[in-house]
Amino acid sequence: MSDEVRFSLTVDGTSHEVTARWSESLLTVLRDRLGVRGPKTGCAHGRCGACAVRADLGDGDPHVLCACLVPAATAAGGTVETIASIGGPDGELSDVQEAFLAEGAVQCGICTAGFVTAATELLESNPEPTRTEIEEALYGNLCRCTGYGRIVAAVETAARTRRGEAR
Ligand code: FES
Ligand code: FES
Fold first, then answer.
1. How far is 108 from 80, CA to CA, in rounded Å?
2. Last residue of a domain, which of 61, 85, 109?
3. From which domain of life does this come (predicted)?
4. Ligand 1 atom closest to residue 66's alpha carbon, by position in its atom list
């Protein structure tokens, strides 16, 4: 019996028909089968957040998850938004991305899509997070380069910008 499964998956607004092995992760399907390279491969074990995407796996409740932990077939019929869905349609940076650049919160960049994805979800549900709430929201994301202070400062800056407050 074949261990492959065929299913549809919408990624960043584009519908795909995917054939993948049952054991393949959503991250592998995105990067290696569909060429969607925004989510990064870090630990591949759910510990670094580099692969974070926002996904609706069919329950109508989109949320941020680690694509390396999700068997791709469980996303059948679902929708995935990667970092490509966060900026504007012509590549404009989002306010969160702008804040990361302004605060020097990006160095090698392998962690950045995951942090921006998690931070964006936080600010959509909580426009005025405390520093503790920011740290808790980013708890599943690791950065080896910047130190976390600049990243937390970037999220605070983005939150102030969203609220129309001066930086
Ligand atoms: S690559 Fe998925 S959490 Fe590290
Ligand atoms: S910028 Fe390099 S790991 Fe975060």
1. 25
2. 85
3. Bacteria
4. 2
| 18 Cβ closer than 6 Å to some ligand 1 atom | no
Residue-range definition of the domain harbouring residue 111: 95-163
Shared domain check, 158 and 110: yes
- Do residues 71 and 46 share a domain? yes
Residue 166: pLDDT over 70: no
Provide the CATH number for the domain around residue 158: 1.10.150.120
Ligand closest to 25 (CA) is 1
Q: At residue 118, what are phi and psi to the nearest 5 degrees?
A: -65, -40
Q: Would you say residue 89 has pLDDT above 90? A: no
Neighbours of 44 (CB within 10 A): 16
pTM to 2 decimal places:
0.94
> Does the Cβ of 46 fall within 6 Å of ligand 1?
yes
Instruction: Please write the tens of the pLDDT for every residue from 39-60.
Output: 999 999 999 999 999 999 988 8
Q: What is the 143 CA–ligand 2 centroid distance (Å)?
A: 5
